Amino acid sequence: MAVLFITTNIFSQSTKKFIDTGSVKNQFEYLVDESNNYQDYKVVKAAWLLKLKSNVIDSLSASEKKISDNLNILSSQKKRIDSLQTKFEESEIVISNLMSEKESISLFGIQFEKSVFKTLFFFIVVFLISVLLFFITKFKQSNSITIKSKLALKQVEEEFETYRIKALEREQKAMRRLQDELNKNKKDS
To answer: What single-letter DSSP state applies at residue 1?
Structure first.
């Protein structure tokens, strides 16, 4: 019974040491190093092979899960990048439209570039000032003519009044002479 206990103890220690080593590579190296030689062959304990198989399968499963998780993360990041790219392109369009609106002015529903609008506004102002100066000049000329005409009318009215008064006086003198002549003719007759 003591031999069985010692053999079990030794087997369990060597299995434990085999199990406790880290990577699959280290486990293979330990398996090759610790296995017995029989002619050209290595004799490996079945428990070690089963444990190595289990560890390799676990490592492969963990790697496959990690690869699958990484693919899922990669896929979600790709979708996020595509979404952000779409939003970026939309933002570029909005920025372009805003820059276009900033650089233009709407007048009666027609979009004008600021430089064209400024030039158009400048020509309109110059045209209106020219028209105003033209009308002011014409008004002054007309006003001058009107003042001269009023002055001439006043002079003509004064001359006419003077003529009328003289004509009235002449008429009265002529009437008096006529009356005097008539009176004289009556007296003589």
So the answer is: -
For strand 104-107 and strand 41-43, is the pairing parallel, antiparallel, or unpaired?
Answer: unpaired
Residues 117 and 81 in one domain: no
Radius of gyration of the chain (CA): 64
Q: pLDDT by residue (tens digit) across 22-59?
A: 777 787 778 777 777 777 777 877 887 888 888 888 88
pLDDT tens per residue across span 140-153: 999 999 999 999 99
pTM: 0.43
Residue in 12, 15, 6, 7 with CA at minimum distance from that of residue 44: 15
Q: Which domain holds residue 80?
A: 2-86
- What's phi and psi for 41, nearest 5 deg? -110, 155
**Number of structural domains found in the chain:** 2
Does residue 98 lie within any of the structural domains?
A: no
- Are 27 and 21 in contact by the 8 Å Cβ rule? The answer is yes
Q: Indicate if the pLDDT at residue 61 is higher than 80.
A: yes
Closest CA to 59 of 91, 97, 87, 21: 21
Whether 93 maps to a domain, the answer reads no
Burial class (CB in 10 A: 0-12, 13-18, 19+), 186: exposed
Say if 121 falls within a structural domain: yes
- In a domain, residue 101? The reply is no
- List the structure tokens of 79: 């979708």
Pairwise CA distance, residues 118 & 109, whole Å: 17
